[in-house]
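Changelog note: in this version the structure field was regenerated for every chain. One regenerated record is shown below for reference.
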Amino acid sequence: QVQLVESGGGLVQAGGSLRLSCATSGRIFMFNVMGWYRQAPGKQRELVTTITRGGSTTYADSVKGRFTISKDNAKNTVYLQMNSLKPEDTAVYYCKAEGTYEYWGQGTQVTVSS
């Protein structure tokens, strides 16, 4: 059973930065796609960004130019660098790994104060 563990969330002021990490118990090259999702209170979970095995990335329009996804295959870890944070970025952020099966992490809270 693959486990994903997110870390790096916290409270930050608007305009600040955070870097989230998603450490996997499996080798990340096993997965076709890894991504970050978020869920704000009272809202549906939404896709933030993805990265493929080959390194191609996609971003939601709301985070383009501010967030960057990356991965370190040697550390089996995916990162989400978040800059110029806004209060509307406040949410629980989840890591997802897609291969033969899908795996989710437990989430990490990001709170951006105005």
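Spot check on this record: DSSP finds no helices and eleven strands in the chain. The chain has a mean pLDDT of 96.
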